[in-house]
């Protein structure tokens, strides 16, 4: 019988020796992994040219009337590049103190919502406690992520990801190399604790 280790709700952490391509020093939250493929979002790569104000304005939510009060949204808050696939698709990774029926629950603490409801709630100050808006996705075809993890040709050991369970802190705080380094430390500590 062929056993599969699905990585739903795990963080994929690029190895230090992973020196080329889109995923260098990346931390990727795996939202869904099955026999037909996997998808997730990079959580530590800030966008250079867009921010939350751009996204809120693009969907027409810079002024929202709620209960007779007009809310003006102004923020230069960072938006993240979630991956190279569907680069105009906006999704929000967030804590589950706020969610809708369309929220994809990744873990007991984290969800991803890709419809306008999250942006609307954020624009009036009623969104989730912690969130990170992103554009684009990381997507693997059937067997691709499993192949990367195997390190067997055509993949190499450098394609293998370090893995650790996703947490709010690892996904929604910090960015870039600092967040990646914390995730690596978490992977190492988990491996050490498994030995004892």
Describe this structure in words.
The protein has 196 residues and is of the alpha+beta class. It has one domain: VC0467-like. It has 5 helices and 12 strands. Strands 1, 2, 3, 4, 7, 8, 9, 10, 11 and 12 form a 10-stranded mixed β-sheet that branches. The protein has a two-stranded antiparallel sheet with strand order 5-6. A hairpin with a 2-residue loop joins strand 5 and strand 6. The longest helix has 20 residues. The two termini are 30 Å apart.
Write the layout of secondary structure elements.
Layout: E1 10-14, E2 27-34, E3 37-42, E4 46-51, H1 52-58, E5 63-66, E6 69-72, E7 78-81, E8 85-95, E9 104-105, E10 110-113, H2 116-123, E11 131-141, H3 144-150, E12 161-165, H4 168-172, H5 176-195
Parallel strand pairs: 7-11
Antiparallel strand pairs: 1-2, 1-12, 2-3, 3-11, 4-7, 5-6, 8-10, 8-11, 9-10
Helix content: 10-25%
Radius of gyration: 18 Å
CATH topology: VC0467-like
Order of helices and strands: EEEEHEEEEEEHEHEHH
At CATH's second level, what is the architecture? Answer: 3-Layer(aba) Sandwich
Could you give a quick summary of the protein structure above?
The chain is an alpha+beta fold. It is built from 5 helices and 12 strands. The protein has a single domain, classed as VC0467-like, CATH 3.40.1740.10.
Attribute tags:
196 residues, VC0467-like, 10-stranded mixed β-sheet, 5 helices
């Amino acid at each position: 019988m062929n056993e599969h280790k699905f990585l739903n709700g795990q963080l994929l952490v690029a190895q230090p020796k992973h020196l080329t391509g889109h995923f260098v020093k990346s931390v990727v939250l795996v939202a869904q992994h099955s026999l037909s493929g996997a998808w997730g979002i990079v959580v530590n790569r800030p966008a250079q040219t867009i921010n939350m104000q751009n996204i809120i304005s693009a969907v027409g939510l810079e002024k929202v009337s709620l209960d007779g009060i007009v809310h003006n949204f102004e923020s230069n808050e960072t938006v993240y590049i979630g991956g190279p696939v569907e680069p105009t698709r906006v999704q929000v990774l967030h804590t589950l103190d706020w969610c809708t029926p369309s929220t994809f629950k990744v873990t007991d603490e984290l969800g991803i919502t890709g419809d306008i409801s999250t942006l609307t709630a954020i624009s009036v100050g009623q969104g989730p406690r912690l969130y990170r808006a992103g554009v684009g996705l990381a997507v693997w075809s059937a067997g691709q992520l499993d192949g990367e993890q195997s390190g067997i040709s055509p993949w190499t050991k450098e394609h293998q990801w370090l893995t650790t369970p996703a947490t709010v802190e690892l996904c929604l705080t910090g960015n870039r190399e600092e967040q990646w380094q914390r995730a690596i430390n978490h992977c190492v500590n988990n491996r050490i604790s498994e030995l004892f």
